Amino acid sequence: MPQKISIKTDGSAEEKIKAAARKLFTQKGFSATKTRDIANEAGINLALLNYYFRSKEKLFEIIMLENIGHFFQGVLLIVNDQTSDFYKKIESLVDFYISRLTDNPDVPLFVMNEARNNPENLSIKFNLMDSYFMIQFMEEIKKGKIKKINPIHLMINILGLTIFPFAARPMMKKIRNISEEEFHTLMQERKKMVPEWIKLMLEVKK
C-alpha cells in the first residue's frame, strides 16, 4: 500500500508561506521564484505549501489580489482626506502609487491580465468619481483656477504617468539596459516631476 503523507498544519503556516512568497516574488519576480524557494524561505516542507496553495500560480494570484485590495484602501484614504488640498492630494497619490509599485512591481501587469481574463476578481468598489478629491477638483474649476476638463482625463494622466513605467519596466530593462538601481532612481525622481507636470497641464494660462 502507498504510504500516506502526514501533514501537520497550524494557524501561522499559511501566513508564513504568503509572507515568504510575497518577499521572493518582489525580489526575484514570478518566473524566477520556485515553489521550493518559497518553502525554504518559509521554513516549511514543500508538501505543506502544496497542501495550502496547490501551485505557484494560485499563490501568486492570492497575494496579488491581497496587494490590490490594500492598494485601493490606501488610495481611498488619500482621496477622501478632507484635511489636504487638491494639489497635495495629487502629490500624495503619485508618491503612494510609486512607493507601492516599487515594492510590488508585478502588480500592473497582473491587474491588466486579470482585467482581461478574470474581471470579476477586480470587482472592488472603488469609485474615485464620488471621492472628496473630485469635489475639490470641481471647486477648483468653478474658481477658474484650473481648466474645465473631463475628470476622467485627470485620472488617466495620474495613473498613466505613475503606473505605466512599471508596466513597461521589463521592456525598458531589455531595450535600454536599465538596471534595477537606475530604474529605482528614475521612479524616485518621478515622485516630484509628475505632480509638477499635472499642475502645468491643469493651470489656466493668463
**Any low-confidence stretches, pLDDT <50, length ≥5?**
1-9
Distance between the termini: 86 Å
In N-to-C order, the SSE pattern is: HHHHHHHHHH
Count of individual helical segments: 10
Structural class label? mainly alpha
Integer-rounded radius of gyration = 21 Å
Helix content: 55-70%
Structure in words:
The protein is mainly alpha-helical. 69% of the residues lie in helices and 0% in strands. Helix 4 (56-79) runs antiparallel to helix 5 (86-103), helix 5 packs parallel to helix 8 (151-167) and helix 8 (151-167) packs antiparallel against helix 10 (180-202). It is elongated and about 65 Å long. The termini are far apart. Mean pLDDT is 85; it is low at 1-9.
